[in-house]
Amino acid sequence: MNKAKTLGELKKTGYQPRTIKEELRQNLIEKLKKKETVFEGIHGFEHSVVPELERAILSKHNINLLGLRGQAKTRLARLMIDLLDEYIPVIEGSEVNDDPMDPISSFGRKAIEEKGDNTPISWMHRSERFSEKLATPDVTVADLIGDVDPIKAANMKLSYSDPEVIHFGMIPRAHRCIFVINELPDLQARIQVSLFNILQEGDIQIRGFKLRMPLDLQFIFTANPEDYTNRGSIVTPLKDRIGSQILTHYPQDIETAKTITAQEANLEEKQHKMVKVPELAKDVLEQISFEARESEYVDEKSGISARMSITGFQNLLSTAERRALQQGSKKTVLRFSDFMGVIPSITGKIELVYEGEQEGAAFVAHQLINDATKTMFPDLFPAIEKLEKKQERTPYDDITQWFFESSGIDLEDGMSDNQYRKKLDSVKPLVDLINEYHPEIADNDKYFLMEFALWGLASYNKLSKQRFNEGLEFKDLYGGYIDKL
User: pTM to 2 decimals?
Assistant: First the structure.
């Protein structure tokens, strides 16, 4: 469509106004017919959340996205912008984005009465048609809907009963837009009540004015299930007016979680070139989040945000990068001990229950790394049974015997890659274990897997693992026990 500059030019183009819900519906239909991806960058929701969201849009519903933190609720809402027309015409100067063919404000109607077909038109891009408000207890009706502006009334010498003296709130200014209210239960009940008319009849009420403004909005609300009990609730009549409530969820497998982390980490190209990251390291990182969601120390109602893996991945690479910079190396390979650098990303992202508080956040973070290692160990090496027969030989006997006869090994954080490799190569039975079960493994990944094996044996109480200021120490189990005493 040519961008008309006046109402007369717009009429000649054959423009027909349509509501935002019709606009979203028709553009979604076109995308579905062309088999295009509707919500780019959303992973793991292809067979659950996305179909429900598309059905809600086709049904012209206002939507409530219900889920724990870090489940892409706000991201989904923002991606709905892509279903809007690229540009829409607006009466120039209108506070409420008046449609030239169907104005709702006194300003818009007066402009057309006075100027007719010469009424100036501006064009609004879809990126401008998104408004967002975080619900907090201090939000007022005036913030959302509007209020009488006494200064405007005095300057214009108008009566308080004149609609011209109204200062519009965020919702009327979002006419013909997508309007998002995040954390809806945090909105006070009396403020939620003010939304009833807008959702049902599409109009607003400001104080005692007999004012009818048939607003055209696509409402999207987000809420956390925890909020219903801890901080507030959505009042029943408001829930009744929201067409579709859609439940979001966390990634259900490691591959999906890895895809999300890689997409959102926003690492510099220099970091990617400097630090070689074994695929196993990415798997372990995501497994930590899965372990946290099942941990007895972590409050499951609070949830574990996908941001924990994202910031954890950033810290993981930065730990290896820092070591390389200190040594003057241009490249390095990630080590399993670099996961110690992920702990600050974990402690700030988990809500602990009483038992977790007693143990401390750092202890819980260490435990989650160990749990992730223990869970993944049987996928890479023979399972370690809880009850082993005394005379039966296991694949790990040579390793435990080596540590029993030696003083163990120290893996210092600051050692060079060559020193690190020599330390691990000195444990000959460990080298044999890797060669037997992973003969085709790349050299860069080999040493990460070797240290992973040591962590796994320690998590199954076959070896002792201790953290000291400069790094990690692996010893015979009984030697480690005596050192503790």
Answer: 0.86
